[in-house]
Amino acid sequence: MKNTQKYKRVKMNVTKNCFSNLIPIYHINAFVRENQFSGNPAAVCPLNEFLPDEIMQAIAAQNNLAETAFIVLKESHCLIRWFAPKEEVTLCGHATLAAAHAIFNFISPTSNHIEFRSPLHILKASRENDLITLDFPARPYEKIELPKILKESITVTPKEVLASDDYLVVLKDQSHIENLVVDLNMLSKLDRRGVVFTAKGNQSDFVCRVFHPKLGIREDPVCGSAHCELTPYWSKILNKTQLNATQLSSRGGDLLCELKNNRVILKGKCRTYLDGMIDVVL
Q1: Would residue 71 count as lying in a domain?
Q2: Does 255 map to a domain?
Q3: In this structure, are 85 and 194 located in the same domain?
Q4: Coil, strand or helix: which one is 228?
Q5: Is 67 a catalytic residue?
Q6: For residue 2, is it within any domain?
Q7: 131 shares its domain with 59
Q8: Tens of each residue's pLDDT in the chain, 282 residues
Q9: Which of 61, 167, 227, 255 is buried deepest, with most CB atoms within 10 A?
Q10: Residues 128 and 218 in one domain
């Protein structure tokens, strides 16, 4: 893939054996609605090669966004890693959507397809007009009893509880999702990545809210990877493979989801908030 972006990584000797690197950064809102300040903000940093883990983690903590994606563009694919403020994560939907947006609009604007390779996954992205499509693995789930800590964290009675990478808590209807009150301190003690609360939607097929306090994310504005868990569930419940989803965070976001051959196809739009450079001393 040809990189047509005109930027330079500039090394400056700040002190002995210490160099300053100017690194491009894009702040992009992913899975936006009509309001440009909706969706989930992610940072995208294109690199010539991955930085030491502790530096990438420090950058993610400094950005203080749900995730920062670090990408290394190769001839035929793009390496990607995701860091939340507190730790590296194995998969992130909205930051992958943001990374694809950065590539398609800034780094390689003649491209319409990209294959991302993370340490655990191969993920494909494509664009058609302003809609970006991601191809992710579906995440399996199992029905469980309500864990004691989770029961003490909420004030409503779930219809059912499922376990995947997150706990999935199914509530009666959309109003229960909208009015949900949780104890984040208690949720942070759970043994899963986080908790996803979901219900059948009024206008959408389903709605959700997502909490990841263990990762340093109180409420995730729009979580693509959670929809890799939700799509198989709601596809079975509603007996349909193509679904409209809305995340009911304060920012809000819309996703088009499709279950296809044990894969989840996610579609959404992005808006660039800013692009610039960060100065990192190595």
Answers
A1: yes
A2: yes
A3: no
A4: helix
A5: yes
A6: no
A7: yes
A8: 655 454 444 443 434 445 568 999 999 999 998 888 899 999 999 999 999 999 999 999 999 998 999 999 999 999 999 999 999 999 899 999 999 999 999 999 999 999 999 999 999 999 999 999 999 999 999 999 999 999 999 989 999 999 999 999 999 999 999 999 999 999 999 889 999 999 999 999 999 999 998 888 889 899 998 999 999 999 999 999 999 999 999 998 999 999 999 999 999 999 999 999 999 988
A9: 227
A10: no
Q: Which domain holds residue 75?
A: 11-136+269-281
Looking at residue 215, its pLDDT comes to 82
Query: What CATH number is given to the structural domain containing 82?
Result: 3.10.310.10
Query: Which of the following is catalytic: 54, 67, 152, 258?
Result: 67
pLDDT value, residue 146:
92
Residue type, 51: L
| Residues 82, 162 share a domain | no
Closest C-alpha to 280, from 1, 8, 24: 24
Q: What is the DSSP track for 51-84?
A: PPHHHHHHHHHHHTSSEEEEEEE-SS-EEEEEE-
The Cα–Cα gap between 20 and 97 comes to 29
Report how many domains make up the chain: 2
B/e letters for 246-256, b = 16+ CB within 10 Å, e = fewer, are bbbbebbbbbb
Question: How many Cβ atoms from other residues are within 10 Å of residue 99's Cβ?
Answer: 33
Structure tokens at 142: 């199992």
Confidence (pLDDT) at 275: 95
**Up-side HSE of residue 219: CA atoms within 13 Å toward CB?**
17
Domain-embedded: residue 5? no
Strand pairing class (122-128; 113-117): antiparallel
Burial of 22 (0-12, 13-18, 19+ CB in 10 A): middle
Amino acid at 91: L
